[in-house]
Design a protein that fits this description.
homotetramer; about 190 residues; mainly alpha; Arc Repressor Mutant, subunit A; Tetracycline Repressor, domain 2; 2 domains; 9 helices; about 75% helix; about 0% strand; DNA-binding
Chain lengths: ~190, ~190, ~190, ~190
DNA sequence: CATGAATGAGTCTTCATTCAT
DNA sequence: TATGAATGAAGACTCATTCAT
């Protein structure tokens, strides 16, 4: 008997995931340009042609990956959505952020490598910017409330620090004690009171 | 009358520079993989074939660029070579490092994008690591002398912060006030005393 | 409806033949190095890229051609596989060998030209050597049984003669009466009794 | 003081030899197509440009090599120029021919590899044919005088045998006892009487 | 005469994408 | 839906040859 539309949708969704998983793994480990569609298809256990049934192009595929990661990231911020960041939420955010990197280094490696590729990926930057804008405001308020002199500067610095730590960890996981850095960052950028 | 060896050497040196300048610009702005040898040759105003009279391969070209930048970088560290870092030298180093980025963002964009490329460029990582090792030791000593609890951790954190700031500046120069960050970093990681 | 694996196999087999035929013709008539992949593709009526769907490289292509011919050649020797060569089988072998050359001069021209190419093709030589070893032994026994003084030398000489005749025929088919040479060779190297 | 025209001529001749020697070695050992002009120039200890002062093209260079070898070969035939071949002269010719191969295998390897290359070969073919024509006639007369049934066929066969032996020796010098074959060939194709 | 920088056409090869089945 | 054969544009690289000095 024929499948219901819902079943079809489920199958499609599952296949999409399958392809994206394979692609993420390969892109992150072997690079975007050195990973061919053929390889991805093989890793995903499907034919090259079918790939294009799910993604219009290689570029769309990588964009989907980035978008997906981005959405996960967005959920980390201000979980209770009340527009105010408490000291505990700040600490929680730092911890969660690093945990995310530890749990899924592959994705973040992809993110950074793409971010540094100039040209095509300005689009991604916009996506990230729009997500980060709200969080930025939250942080600025946070620092202002604590009497920090240059709240915007401090917020930017904090973001840069998170990026720098993440990047260094990804480049050299076994040499870089990410776990220990959680507290260091919270102490240095959380402003107790 | 044939050219003298010196004349040939001069031609070679000049052309090498010409090619490397064109390549650096393109690699940094459009990425390593999306920049073709054709494009570089055209930008350098020469024929494709001539490129290979100066560099054995595209990879050797990019490596030469990185090596060159590396050597410039190396000169920044511990200028008086006495094996000890003073507070002033620390400040000087921070300022100089950021100045280097401001003056030559192209190179640093290349550096970061290559660093995040997987696979081929482990060699570059080793080169950088060997250069940075000494500086790392200098920093550890610096923090130890100032009674910082976890000197190695602090040194690593400092490095990560420098990287993060640089990266954010490169991605968004007009939004990221690198100049103002000099003092911030010195205050936060210089440990007065 | 997708094609069945069998259909795909059929397509592949047919196309492989098509490419190999075109390549054999060109390699043999214009030489390995002077025949470009482009030319082969055009002669086979396909795109350049498709070539690489069937053969990993130009070298693999020529190797496949040689292997194929080799296998055909192998079937000529000692057809009844009893390990002994009779006088009739000897005569039969000479005749068949020359017939093979007459019927498929293209292949043999390729074979000789590759054999004289230095460097890469030592591998081919090994393949041929391993095939010819058994036949050589057969011949040595043959001559020994007939009381020839230096059986190994005679066998080697016979081989050289076959090569020389073949080569001369290939270089100048209309001037070289290969057909008449069958009897001559049989008389001179067959040792009646 | 300026050199005399004769001195210039001498220098030119010497340089030509130098280049030809280097080229012969490389062509024979690494193949015509895989040997670049650059390599030859370096091996000859001169610049690429100067090469073209002595040879108009790579092709002219290889042709010169072949011509030179051809002339040496021609001297082997009918040394006393009386238009008649004696039994001793026949034997002498066989011995001398093989000695030439033993003494200068490099040249002969080149000769054979070029001979099997189509295209270029046709040009050389005529040169060889014209040289060999006289010798051929000599041989035909030789066999006719000795009552051989098919003198022309026998002469052709003899030529093919010489080629075959030479080729086998060149391909596998240590396995192929060329020295011993002298007598064998003389016995088999010299027709005592 | 002598050099090697410079050219440009040509080579092999790769790969995202399309399409007949 | 699913396959992989087929395409074609592009890429890295080579090399005989020319030419300014």
């Amino acid at each position: 008997m024929p499948r219901t539309p819902e079943q079809f949708e489920k199958i499609r969704e599952k296949m999409r995931k399958q392809i994206m998983n394979a692609a993420l793994e390969l892109f992150a480990n072997e690079g975007y340009y050195t990973t061919s569609i053929s390889k991805i298809a093989k890793a995903a256990g499907i034919s090259k042609g079918l790939m294009y049934n799910y993604f219009d192009s290689k570029e769309e595929l990588v964009m989907s990956l980035l978008k997906e990661g981005l959405n996960k990231l967005a959920e980390l911020f201000d979980p209770n959505k009340d527009g105010v960041l408490t000291r505990d939420e700040f600490a929680f955010f730092v911890e969660k952020s690093f945990d995310a990197v530890i749990e899924n280094p592959t994705y973040w490696r992809l993110y950074f490598s793409i971010m540094m590729q100039v040209g095509i990926y300005d689009m991604v930057k916009e996506m990230y910017a729009s997500i980060l804008k709200d969080t930025m405001q939250l942080l600025v308020d946070y620092y202002q409330k604590r009497g920090v002199k240059d709240p915007l500067g401090e917020a930017l610095l904090f973001g840069a620090v998170m990026d720098g730590i993440t990047m260094n960890y990804l480049l050299n996981p076994e040499m870089f004690p990410l776990e220990e850095f959680k507290q260091k960052v919270i102490d240095k950028f959380g402003y107790k009171n």
